[in-house]
Amino acid sequence: MTDEYISKIEEITGRDQRKRVLEIVRIMRRHDFVRNFMKQQNPEEVRFALEELGPTFIKGGQILSTRPDLISPAFISEFKKLQDDVQIDSFESVSKTFREQTKKNISDVFDKFDEKPFASASIGQTHHAVLKNGTQVVVKVQHPKIKELVETDLTLFRQALKILKLAPEITVVDPKEILNQLQESLLNEINTEIEIKNGLEFYRLNNHDGIIEVPVVYEEYSTQKILVTSRMDGESIKKLAARSLSDDTTERKLQKKERTYIANALVKNFTKQVFVDNFFHADPHPGNILFYRLKQDDPRINELESTHEFEKKSGSIKASIKTEQKLPPYRLVYLDFGMMGRLSPLLAEGIANVIVALSKKDTQEISQAVLSICNRTGEIDEEDFTDQLGIFLTPYLKQGLGQIDFPVMLYDIIKLCRKNNLQVKPEVTLLIKAFGSLEGIVSQLDPDLSLMDVARPFAKEYFKRKFNWKNELDEDLITFGRAVKSTPQIPIKIEKLLDTLNQGRGRFTLRFKGQDTFIDRIETIVNRLIITIILASIILSSSLLVQGSMEHPAIYNIGVAGYMISFIVIIWMVASAIWHHFKK
Question: What keywords does the record list, in alphabetical order (predicted)?
Answer without folding.
Answer: Kinase, Membrane, Transferase, Transmembrane, Transmembrane helix
